[in-house]
Amino acid sequence: MNKLSRILLIGLVLALLGIGVGYFVTSQPKDEKSNKSSNQTSQPAQQPLAEVNPQPTSEPLIAQDTPPEQKVVAEPDYDPAIWKVEHNGVTSYLFGSIHMGDQSMYPLPEQVRQAYAESDVLVVEIDLNNLNQLKIAQTIQQMAVTPEKSLKDLISEDTAAKYDAYCQRTRSPCAMFSTFEPWFVAASLEALNMQQQGYQEQLGIDKHFLSEAKDNKDIVELESFDSQLAILDGMPLELQELMLLGTVTRDEGGVEKLIKAWKTGDVETYLAEEQLSAKDQGVSEEDYAAFMDLFLYQRNQGMADGIAELLEQGKSAFVVVGAAHYGGEKSVNYYLEQKGFKVTRM
């Protein structure tokens, strides 16, 4: 499978897993989309899906020919956030994921490794090992592609200009996105940006634990591929545009900022800074709240329901979901506490 095809598929997974609200905006488009010229050029022809994924197979989505080399390093000197959840004498754990990583994240701190070892079940958003390229390709064809309209028909002229400038500056393969919806383009560009900075999906936290749990622990999914995709595909175009605009106008260092927030366990500050940044750039509180409710809060409540059901069965769970799901108001932690579970930061 060629590199660009992998980027498209990885981008979708990052969007589904919610790498963080860093997708959101650093600037606000005009209140009303600019009027398009009446002599606008004709729409580009839809790129055949076969060109995006020429030979879809049933192999796992994030498989690689050669696993990244695992170097032997000293005990890490960082302290990511982990919580314990106590219920009826059984302790479970909540740990935040970054869905692409690098070697500096391994080995994980001792208390994280110990918490995983003591747990009966690994709980994730979706089991990446159960996804396959054929299903992804078919889903992209059905939901993420808009053959009757180009990407630039769906966004304002102002956003389109910033998008073009980003593509030229970063030399990203934007021509292949001409008939994709804005949310998918944003996710794909995020994946490409992280790859260019040396981060790999094979070294993501959820992928790490899924590999550890294979043949050793039961794996429970809190969501499904289809349900996550429905959230993204059903996102209003205004929010999709903000998502894309945030990607193409973000200051350099955004990825490092996200990784630092994860390593220091300071998700709350990261989310607060993202909200302030959006406000400073003119994003309305209504738009920001709508994005957070759709992308995080509704999912957080559903995740908490699934975790609670599992814990009521007396099982010790090690829960790994995107780090942003544990921060801010209406977090997974908050909903578990509302259900009567004792949640404590370790």
Pick out its properties:
346 residues; disordered N terminus; 9% strand; single chain; 13 helices; 46% helix; alpha/beta; six-stranded mixed beta sheet
Question: What does this protein look like?
Answer:
This protein is 46% helix and 9% strand. It has 346 residues and is of the alpha/beta class. The protein has one domain (3-22, 77-345). A 6-stranded mixed β-sheet has the order 4-3-5-2-1-6, sandwiched between helices. The longest helix has 27 residues, at 285-311. The radius of gyration is 20 Å and the shape is globular. Residues 1-13 and 15-67 have low confidence and may be disordered.
Number of helices: 13
Largest beta sheet, briefly? 6 strands, mixed
Based on Cα principal axes, name the global outline: globular
Quick check: average pLDDT?
79
In the sheet with the most strands, the strands line up as: 4-3-5-2-1-6
What number of structural domains do the residues give?
Answer: 1
Helicity, in percent? Answer: 40-55%
The low-confidence parts are 1-13, 15-67
The rounded distance between the terminal residues' Cα atoms is 42 Å
Q: Report the structural category.
A: alpha/beta
Nearest-angstrom radius of gyration? 20 Å
Question: SSE string, helix = H, strand = E?
Answer: HHEEHEHHHHEHHHHHEHE
